[in-house]
Structures are given as C-alpha cells and as structure tokens.
Amino acid sequence: MKKTLVLGCAFLVCALAAAQDHPLWLRYPAISPDGRTVLFCYKGDIYSVPSAGGTATPLTMSESYEFAPVWSHDGKTIAFASDRYGSFDVFVMPAGGGEARRLTFNSAREVPSTFTADDRAVLFSAYRQEVATTAQFPVSIMTQLYSVPVAGGRVSMVLPVPALDATLNSAGDKLIYHDMKGYESDWRKHHTSSVTRDVWVYDFRTHKYRQLTQFAGEDRNPVFDADGNTFYYLSEETGSFNVHKSSLADPAKNTPLTHFTRNPVRFLTRANDNTLCFDYDGEIYTMKQGGSPERLPVRIAEDGRETLDRNVPVNDGFTEARLSPNGKEFAYVFRGEIFVTSMEGGVTKRITNTPYQERSVSFSPDGRSLVYAVEKDSSWDVYRVSIERKEEPYFFASTVLKTEPVVATAAEEYQPEFSPDGKEVAYLENRVTLKVINLASGKTRTILPADMNYSYADGDEYYQWSPDGKWFLVQFGLAGRVQVPEVGLVSADGKGEVHDLTHSGYDNTEPRWSMDGKMFIWGSDRRGARQQGGDLITADVYGMFLTKAAFDRFRLTKEEFALVKEQEEKAKKEAEGKKKGKEAAEAKDSAKVEVKIDWQGLDERKARLTIHTSEANDWLLSKDGEKLFYLTVFDKGNDLWTTDLRTKETKLFAKLGARRASMELSADGKFIFLLLDGKPAKIDAESGKEEQIRTGTTTTGCTGNSSPTSTTTTISPRCSPRCWEKSMPPIRAAGTTSPPAPATRPLSWASCMTSITRGPACAWPRWWRGGRPTGRTRKSRRGTLLRRSTALR
User: Fold this and answer.
1) How far apart are CA 176 and CA 223, in angstroms?
2) What is the spatial distance between Cα 636 and Cα 704, in angstroms, rounded to a whole number?
3) pLDDT digits (tens, 9 = 90+) for 603-620
4) DSSP bridge partners of 697
5) How far is 450 from 407, CA to CA, in rounded Å?
6) How many Å apart are CA 328 and CA 342, to the nearest integer?
7) Please, which residues bridge with residue 619 across strands?
8) How many CB atoms sit inside 10 A of residue 686's CB?
9) Distance between CA atoms of 440 and 419, rounded to whole angstroms?
10) Residue 444 in contact with residue 434, Cβ under 8 Å?
11) Phi/psi of residue 8, nearest 5 degrees
C-alpha cells in the first residue's frame, strides 16, 4: 500500500510538472505584425501563443538553444538564432512551424534583429570583419550589422558599428538601434558610466548617424511607431527599466508609459497597431496604445521529456581539480558536482548529488575530508564532507560519508582552503574579505579586509597558506590603486598588518610558496611586452627570498652549490647515524617547515626567474626549489616549460598544446598533476613523460563491494552547460554511492523526475548565476592578458 501511494504521488508530480499553467522565465517575446500572436523563448526553445493568451505551441524542439525570434513584416516568416551547429547562426522558418533553414555559417555569434522592409533579407549583429578605417577597439562585443538574403546567399555589411536590437521604420529608410561603447553585462541594472547604451537612428538616404537619448544611464531596445516619427524604448531614467516614448522630432522629450519598480522591463517589440509587447518578472505583458500593461496568461503543456535520462562519460569537461596530499586520488568538479577518482585504475566515486552548484573543492592535509563551496538556497556557503569509517583511507573507495556545513551565513562564502594542520579553514566572504574559521570553536577572524581587495569577476582573488600555517600570501590592492594587484604577506592570526612585498605599480599576481617556506614565486607584467593600445600582454615569473641565507644559496653557481650540497649530505648521514629512537623522532619533528623572515632588505632579495617574457599561465617550483615549471604560450596553446634556476637553462619540458591549463605538484615532488582543457593528466617531474588519467570504473553500493562499470553520469537531455536557461541537470553517476538527495528539494519551472527512486531532481539553473567557471583565460584588473587559472587551487 505504501509503495502504491509513493508511486501515485510521483506520477502526480510528473503530471503537474508537465503541464504548467503559470510558467515563469518566458523570455524574448516578439509580437506579430498583426498583433495576434506572440513568440517567446522558454528553456531554449521557441514557442508561439495567441496574444490573448492560451496554450503555447512549440516551434522548435531540440537539444540546441534557440532564442531571439523576430517576425517578417508580412507575418509569414520568423528568424531566430540557434547553436545547433556549434556557434549561434541565423535561421528562418515558416511562422506557423516547419523546417528551419540555416542562413549564416560563420563561427561568430550571429543574432537577428529584424527583416528588411521588403522581407527579402534579415539584419543581424555579429563580429565578423572590421572595416579598414575603424577606430574602435577590436573585440568581439563591438559587433557590426549585416544582412543576409532570406533565400540564402552572400552576407553583406549594413553598418560597421554596433547596432543592437535594430529595427526599421515602415518605409525602410531609417534604422533605430542602441549602441555598444564598451563591455558591460546586458543584465546589469542601475548602471551609469561612459559606456552605458544610448538610442541612435541611422538615415540610409543621408548616411548620417544621430544620437537620440542623452540619459547617463541605460537606454536601449528601441522600436518605431507606425507613424515613423515616434519611437518606444526601454530606459532606467525613472529608476528601473520601463517603457518610454519619444520622437525623432523632439528626442529630448520623453514620456514613461510603464511604471514598474521591482524588476526591469525587457525585450520590447511592437505590432502594426502599436500594441507593445515586453517581458517583466519572467512573464509576458502586452499594452495597447493608450492602455495599461496586461499580463499574458500562458499555459505550456510539456510532454515530460525532461524526465528522460541519458548517460554521458565523465572523463573530460572538468572545471577544476585538486590532487590529494597522498597523491593517490584527485577531486574534481563536473557539471557542478564533485567526484573523486583514483590516480591508478580510474576508480571513481561521486561525492555530491544535489540540485545546487558545488565548486572550489580541496583536500584536508590528512586526505580524509573535502571542503568546498555550494550555492545552496541562493547563497554561497562552505561545506565539508568526510570519510566516516577509519578503515577506509580513500574517498574513491569509501562507503559512508558525512556532510556538514562549515560556514553558512547570509553572506557569500566560497573558495575555502584547509590550514596545513587541518584545524582551520580560510575562505572569502563576499568576494573580497579573507577570513579564517576555527573548526573546533566555530570562531572566525578577518585576515584581509574588504577595502584591500577588488573583485571584477568571480574567482579572481587569490591567497595561500604558508607551509607552517602562520602566514598568508595574498593578492591585494593598495588604497587608491585597489585595481592594481600587489603581493602581500599577512599574519594568519588576523592581528598584523599587510606587508606589501612588491609595491611595483604593475600587476603582481598569484604568489606561491616553495615547499620549504624559504621563498615564494609570483607573476608580474612589469617587464612584459606591450600591444598597440599600450596594454601589457605578457608576464614573467619572479622569486623573493625570505632570508638572507636563502638568497645567498640561490646565487651560488652550479659548482659552488655542488660543494655545499656534498657537505650537507655528509653532515646529514653522520647525524642520522648518531640519533636513534626518541632522538630520531624529535629530529623528525624539528624538521617540520617553519617560515622565518628577515624583514630588513626583504624587497631587495628578489630575482626574475624566467629568461623570456611570455603569456605565462601557471607556475610552481620543484620540491627542492631548484627548478621552475611554468605553463606558457609560444606556439599553439599552453605548453610546459622548465628553467634550471642555477644555470638558467630553459627548455620545453612537455608539449601540451592546451587552450586552458593549470597544474599542481605532488607532495613528494615526483609528478605534476595537470588539468588540460578539462581533462586530467600527470607528468613525471624528472622525465617529462605525460600520462593520461582514466576515470574508468565506479564504486557501487554501501556494502563495501565494488564492480567495474563505465564512469558515466545520467543527465536530462534538456540540460547543456552553455544553455543557462535550460533546466539544472539531474546528474547521476551510474553505480556510484552518493549521499542521498535532500528530501525537500525546491520545485520550480525546471522541476522534474529523473526516476521514481530519486524523486524531484531539478531546481533553478545555477551555473550562470554563481560566477564564471574557473580555469580559463581571463584579463587582469587593468586589462593585461595574463593567463591565470584557479582550476587547480
């Protein structure tokens, strides 16, 4: 009876999820010229619904992402953008549904704006080819406006400048659009700067541009009135984005037509009778001329295909990875979930199984715990998962795991790292404040305050514990120059000031300790090459020595160092022969790393370690500190190079050719663990021999038994990492022993059932909200291209 009731409830949930009478997150609405039909985008497909409301009809049904539908003026054809062949291209299809024809074939992102007045061509925006006379910055957001025949054929340039959301008047001789002056997110609200968008008009007869709006904030998405003089647009002049009305004759005068306050109005379109259609708070509204906004009731009857699962291999596409202290396993993030795989044999275990995004994973010093960040209930928190059974030394073979919060407050906490003794965890609060929490007492302390950091994008802050846990190397900014990163040293007790170690005025990033704690290395563009615009585009690796003895040792020649090394080895053997038992144990304890700092003359004890400036990506020292390994680009993609710090001999250590790469040295110094374009690999630190790492079997059951199966993850076919409007993927690694999913998962428009045994699986999509993926090329705070990666940190 109980089983029957459970199954009945499950099928009821499926039925309710399949038919949605009040769906949310309806986007890109476009009203037809006759005002009878509205197109919109929902979960990556295009739907059609009567303008009076009703049940929506899907026009596209594919795993690709379709958006930005526009109508031809006769209402018979629609154009839209789709990534079904990789990048976004322009397609056309009959307005009532039918075969979609591809019109553009360029690798650039191409998005349609409108049809020409005669409906023979589609206007679209793309960054394809600059004109020779252009003076604007050559970057992909500074697009051009193009035209492509509806019947197919050659693409031609219409305007050489960004002309976004462009529409024509009825005569076709004037084009109204909003501009693009520089980078800023399309979705940012209440933004005022020199790059805010304005509305412009272009006259095809006189070939002249004219700026129509002057508001310091955002003005965008204009459409002409049927009279060809009046135009409507979206503006934040009254606070939030609302519909405003103005005219070509007197553009300085405008009248707000809507008065929404809580959320912005988006995606404005117009019918021939001047009925306006737009999006507000995830729903579609229409507004007749002289009337008030009316919500369009939409019902979507889905076929339940989101409950269907498919298996995908879990062997690449990792967004980050960390090596365990013992070098026997590594943890990684795949599609927002954490997995652990053995270095030998590829035995894999799934660690998390939640509707939330997890990231920033790292091991405890003993390898028995993982700490990570999770965006749970719309807030980033820090959690820990630990192996429960003492007889189980590794995560990949563990059977019982315990998950508990470390820091879970209303603030955003992420990027956690265990202290070297495993008793504390450092983390970032609200992007820029470095804090430490004591795991036993739960007390927190601030290490680096918010006013000494600047975060432009998620994951661009950096810090590292010292080997003895008493210090932090940090990347920070000085007052008045907070966007220019310097390298600092600050006490881990939270009581000391930040010591500026570089104070160069150039970008100094991602300092790393040597294993013995006697020096650290970092990247700097102070001697980098400049591009035409003046920005520095290459960098070098530098080293700073914390004691005079360490600096003197570094400056020894190869021959001098050989003599010193010989004497040290001789003394070591003699000391080992004299010490036994308790004395040997005490000697071992005394050999633990202790960071010592000679403050006098510290900033002068530095050296440039690389012999050539390059697009340096990542760097580390060998265990003995005699070799520098660094990832950089000289040819196609990142390769691993090495420099002997004694002789300055530099050579290509391993040919990788990776677009994205990051690395980590094993604790014994014998191999380098890498993440290459989302795939794990390891390289012998002596020979340079590369070895791919398999993720080939998965542990199963909670009984301690295991059986070899292919490592796969079960996902919803509607979920793609690049399509952030589609539902959060219900992921299940086949045969793994994951912690049970929460019993009270939030249901939303993306709620679905992956299986009767699993229960409701999908919640709000997370990967587009929590920040950008780590481990990829990014610009430094001042625009310098430094290929920094946080994927292995």
Assistant:
1) 7
2) 46
3) 899 999 999 999 999 999
4) 347
5) 18
6) 6
7) 630
8) 11
9) 13
10) no
11) -65, -45
Strands 650-658 and 697-698, bridge-based pairing: unpaired
Tell me the pLDDT band of 744, cut-offs 50, 70 and 90: very low
pTM comes to 0.75
- Residue closest to 762 by CA, chosen among 700, 717, 701, 722: 717
Contact 724, 733 (CB under 8 A): no
329 pairs with which residues across the strands?
A: 342
- Give 86's DSSP letter: S
Whether the Cβ atoms of residue 427 and residue 465 lie closer than 8 Å to each other:
no
> Which residues, listed in sequence order, are joined to residue 733 by a DSSP beta bridge?
713
Q: Report the candidate in 457, 463, 405 with the shortest Cα–Cα distance to residue 431.
A: 457
Whole-number pLDDT of residue 19? 55
Per-residue pLDDT at 745 exceeds 60: no
Tens of pLDDT along 253-294? 999 999 999 999 999 999 999 999 999 999 999 999 999 999
Distance of CA 221 to the CA centre of its chain: 27
**Measured between alpha carbons, how far is 559 from 561 in angstroms, rounded to an integer?**
5
Give 28-55 pLDDT, tens digit per residue.
Answer: 999 999 999 999 999 999 999 999 999 9
Write phi, then psi, for 25 (nearest 5 degrees).
65, 40
Q: How far apart are CA 571 and CA 715, in angstroms?
A: 60
E-state strands within 495-556: 499-500, 508-513, 519-524, 540-545
**Residue 239: which of 254, 223, 261 has the closest Cα?**
261
For residues 235 and 264, the answer to whether their CB atoms sit within 8 Å is: no
| Close Cβ partners of 700 (under 8 Å, ≥ 6 residues apart) | 706, 707, 709, 735, 736, 737
Radius of gyration for the alpha carbons in the chain, expressed in angstroms and rounded: 30
| Number of helices (H), then strands (E), in the chain | 4, 61
**Residue 651 token pair:** 């050579």
158 in Cβ contact with 145 (< 8 Å): yes
Please state whether 228 falls in left (phi above 0), alpha (psi between -120 and 50) or beta.
left
Structure tokens at 139: 């970057």
Q: What is the pLDDT of residue 589?
A: 52
Query: Between the CA atoms of 306, 310, 311 and 316, what dihedral angle is there, to the nearest 10 degrees?
Result: -60
pLDDT: which is higher, 486 or 791: 486
CA–CA distances in Å: residue 318 to residues 72, 159, 632, 676: 42, 40, 21, 9
Give the DSSP per-residue string, 296-318: --EEEE--SGGG--EEEE-SS--
Q: In what order do the strands lie in the sheet with 413-418?
A: 413-418, 424-429, 433-438, 444-448
The residue among 448, 456, 373, 459 whose CA lies nearest residue 414 is 373
β-bridge pairing 199-203 and 606-608: unpaired
Angle ∠(194,178,84) on CA atoms, nearest 5: 115
Edge to edge, the sheet with strand 87-94 lists 66-71, 77-85, 87-94, 101-102
Q: Is 474 strand, coil or helix?
A: strand
